[in-house]
Amino acid sequence: MRELDHVMKLTVGIGQFAPALGDVERNLAKIEELCVEAKHADAELLILPELALTGYTLKDMVPVVAQTLDSPIIRKLRDLSREVELVCGFAEESSDYRFYNAAAYFQNGAIRHVHRKVYLPTYGMFEEYRYFASGERIRSFDTPFGRAAILICEDLWHPSTSYITAQDGCDLLIVPSCSPARGLDHDEDLYSVKAWRTLNRMNAHFYGQYVAFANRIGYEDGVGFWGGSEIIAPDGELVARAEQFQPELLIATLTTEHLKRARVVSPLLRDERLDITLRELDRIQRQRMEP
Q1: Total of domains in the chain
Q2: What is the structure's pLDDT at 288?
């Protein structure tokens, strides 16, 4: 993070790659390579996809590859963050032997924040709820650049999650993802591609924040993942985008000046009536509980 004339700048890298299913050591070695590449590219923060440490379709392998927050593997990720701050997805084992689809923000040899995926898709090809417990918290947290938040893939498809993080002061929304290539549309573009680009742009523009979408590539269990990682500016415009289906280290620079400009032009956060939202949600909840 650099400060130039009171404007904070952050150079971000997104490491778009194909994790090897269940091979933690191999994936850790790849993450180390990406950290070195990111450092050489002057990136200060490297963002990796959902479950980057393990691969996605783990099924019964979850207890085998899951890491506690004090495991040697996690300590290695903490060490890597002394050179470049790091967001990495992994399967987490809690102290009460539950397993979570999690992502952590590592900084200066420490864990700054852990997000446990709240919304676990269990429909169609997805079956996460069979193997993972659901997270119970949605929070923004402080970084040298400003407030950040992590939402993992399906989390962002529920509007309440990004609303909460925005109201909690989020400047940079980090979205590790394992989005499969689904639904060839009439214009020969993938439905999943168009849907994610719409989601990312909407969440950036409406909340005046950067959105960093880190999607994986490769094939697992017959499923292809399309990549296309991107960073969207607080005014909804594209900052940078990776190729589809190809490994890439995407680099872009974010500035607090861009945040300020977007929020002055469109002061939606300033004008939000959180009191009304809370009051009406409470009314709806009470009505649903009535016999």
Answers
A1: 1
A2: 95
